[in-house]
Amino acid sequence: MTDVIASEWLKLRSLRSNLYLLACSLAAVLACAGIAFMIGRGFDNQTPEERLAFPGNGDGLGNGIAVAYFVFALLGALAITSEHATGMIQPSLVAVPRRQVLLLAKIPGVAGVALVAGQVLAFAMHAASMAVLGDRAGRLLREGVTLGTPLSEPGVLASVIVAGLSMAAVALIGLGVGAAVRSTPGALVVLTVLIVVLPVVARTLPMPLRARAGSFMIENLPLQIAGTGGGSLPPAVAAGLLVGYVVAALTAGATVIALRGRRIKALAIGVTTAVLVVAAPAVAADTPGAGAGALRWGGCADKGADKGTDKGVGKGLVKDLRCASIAVPVDWSRPYGRKIELTVGLLPATGVHRRIGTVFAVPGGPGGSGVQDLSTNAGSFAELRDRFDVVGVEPRNTIDKGVLPSDCLVSGPWITWPETREEYAELGRRNRAAAERCRAADPEFFDHMDSASVARDMEAIRVALGEERLSFITNSYGSMPGIAYSRLFPERVRAMVLDGAANPYVDRARGRLPHEESFGRFAAWCARASTCALHGQDVGEVWRALVARADRVPVPVKGESPRAAYSGLDIKEAAAPSVISPGPAPDFPRWTQLAEAIARAVGGDASGFAGYVRQSTNSLKVPSFTGMNMTHCLDGLGFRDYEEYRELRRQGERLLPNLAGIELWHPLACVGWPVAATNPPAPLPAGKLPPYLAVGSWTDFGGGADLVRRIPGSGGVQYLGHGHGLYNAGVSCVIAHVNRYLISLRPAAMGTVCPGPAS
Question: What φ, ψ does residue 421 adopt, rounded to 5°?
Fold first, then answer.
């Protein structure tokens, strides 16, 4: 056998046409470079926002790999069809009467040449693409990848190596086809159909058939084997399929050239081998956890539509949003006790890439609806759904569960500054009365609204989904259930994004320093903008004088009772949302409204503040919502005692000259709360957690950054602009960094920034 292999190697290297063929493979490098050039030119002509949505070039091989495949397949086919064309097959068969041995002897030489040349060609194709793209290659896209992917990117080196290996596989396929057809023109036709025609036909099919058929095309197998996308097959299945193609082609060739009596035997052996090679990894990869689990998905009720509509997708919900119900214990310490139904929403994976898993989008509030968030912000998840299912939940602390009266949950007392121990106790009595009014309807339910209970509900959903681990995007106060889940189930966390996070560990006053900076931006804008009602004045001085006077003598609201008069604390709490979220540049409508309200209050009328507070809360002053407090207070947001309150107040007044008190608003609402904290802050098990990613704007990045610094390897992205809940808001740069992290599990380095909008 060794002599036969040596003779076949001599034939292969003596054929001058083989050298010409290998030289032609350089056309694949030129194709990759040419397409990369056109991509770069197109990218340069886009706006910054359009560039983020630009399609990536991947590892750069896809545009030339069909050319390379055709060359190597023809190399394999000519190894045997050239002998038939010249009549040299007869002397070969005289020398080697066993025809299948002759075919087998050709395999080492063809595979060896293709293996070496294929690796060189694959790396040359990648290098050419990257060189042409230049610095553009590193530009991050919304889909979570860069425009071009260097070898240092996860899976790229593997995909290039596998592409080189696949060229050797394609050469062997060509050898098998050539042996079966026995004609160079005939082999060309068959190989053209396999390498060119079938992929083109697959791309014309409607979705999702197009994606499924494309996954089985040879050109898409290397990326799937490397686990970097390109189709829906797991790596083991894709590798088995590529080997199966080779075995099938060689089996066809061995069957045709075999003597009559041995054809059936050759065919049976080859078919059996091919089936086993493909089926074994497919069975091994067929593990549970495809996202369906035990939940029964159906249409979603639109709570914003007519109350009589309880089935199907309502007017306010996206078409492909699905819903299911899950029963969880009201009290997780009694898992077999009373249950409550939660609604889970699902945006299923839609992309052509293999599904990675499930991302759990945790709503803020507390008490926001994750199902409504999925519907309202479905566009933000579009690229993520190439790789993930996205789920959300209407958590137990949403206000419209029908268990507690919603009217009492969306109202609450007006918070006042306690100046004495007696006033502190009086505030506690008012808070307790408001809480008891809601709690009386169902004390057991009311007492279990803490974020740890929400986290346990999330774990029940994970189990029902059949997922081994979950990835999370937490929004605003949704970080609190995320933190609780991290403490309770660290081994179930695959990845965690904290977007505009609430941080139970950070010092309250220091956590509001970015708000002071935002007030400074407001004052600077007033100095520049003639549309500001305070233009030409020292805004800081006017503001502080107003607040100090209002704390001594509250500013009345024209036409309302004296009780509605605004104290300095009321003014600061009413102004805070506008200070940090001014609206779009250059008009900044909320800053304009705020300046007008300040000017009116300086004149003795707080109607400007009361007007826009009433628009959003249906109250003349900002109320302390009982529906939020029932979670805040159980999460340990309150004060230990009056002495702690006084100490924290002094610290705030020292650090926050313009906004002192807003950091104590929610804790003051927990004074006198009827139920003790059940989920107080506790350390994270940092050593058991994967790296996390914090994202946030000027005013809310600091809290998330402080959180993730407690977990080794974590990173952070700051948006240099206003806003809160940036992923849901559709900020493309933030979406790109988050998607990249969720796909690759590599967070952006702390200190990474996203530019804000041009003002």
Answer: -60, -35
